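User: I've been trying to design a sequence by hand for this structure and keep getting stuck. Would you show me what you'd pick, starting by listing the structure so we're on the same page?

Assistant: Good idea, let's start from the same input. This is the structure you sent:
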């Protein structure tokens, strides 16, 4: 484990080593959580199996195996583009969650990376979206189509970037959703989508040329003359 910065709570590890559980799914889940979702469940099972399903030994084997010379991609969360703090959405409503992220490392991301759901509430059936390989320091927006739960309340889910080989990297990014009857977010997103579509329509010849700053009121006035 030389060269690796391993910051695991010894008391926590002692508790896990004393669990004596034989439930492999529980051990895989705890192993993945202790690694901060850096490894997918299949990878966790590999290290647990090679250490006879001893959680503490598996953690050690993982860090022994991970060479400090291997360059892991970097990703930093920048901001929520949609579903920010204080916004709410009605129950059973389709919406688009968008995050702004950055390749905060010195190397471009490898091909085939994706953003994956890793825990909490999922908000629909989508659990993965492909993300293009970002250049160093490049910023991009990543969106996922979601649906709000049917009951009012506060909900949260976690997503992480993942390489094609199953290695999770970068910040954990969150969906924190307030579901309220009468929430306006779904309506505002629909209006925004309509405005975008309207603005991208090909320009037609205006039968009532009003200049660049014509208004609906100007158009009615022109029609009445």
């Amino acid at each position: 484990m030389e060269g690796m910065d391993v910051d695991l709570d010894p008391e926590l590890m002692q508790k896990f080593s004393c669990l004596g559980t034989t439930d492999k799914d529980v051990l895989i889940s705890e192993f993945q959580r202790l690694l901060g979702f850096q490894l997918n469940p299949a990878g966790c099972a590999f290290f647990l199996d090679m250490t006879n399903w001893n959680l503490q030994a598996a953690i050690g084997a993982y860090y022994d195996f991970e060479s400090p010379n291997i360059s892991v991609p970097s990703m930093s969360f920048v901001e929520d583009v949609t579903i920010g703090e204080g916004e709410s959405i009605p129950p059973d409503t389709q919406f688009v969650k968008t995050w702004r992220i950055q390749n905060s490392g010195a190397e471009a991301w490898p091909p085939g990376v994706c953003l994956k759901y890793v825990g909490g509430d999922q908000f629909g059936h989508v659990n993965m979206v492909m993300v293009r390989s970002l250049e160093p320091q490049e910023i991009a927006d990543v969106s996922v189509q979601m649906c709000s739960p049917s009951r009012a309340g506060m909900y949260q889910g976690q997503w992480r970037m993942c390489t094609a080989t199953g290695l999770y990297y970068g910040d954990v990014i969150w969906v924190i959703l307030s579901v309220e009857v009468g929430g306006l977010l779904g309506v505002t997103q629909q209006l925004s989508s309509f405005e975008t579509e309207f603005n991208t329509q090909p320009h037609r010849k205006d039968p009532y040329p009003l200049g660049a700053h014509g208004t609906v009121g100007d158009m009615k006035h022109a029609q009445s003359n």
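That's my pick for every position. To get oriented when you compare it with your attempt: The first strand starts at residue 76 and ends at 80. DSSP finds six helices and eight strands in the chain.
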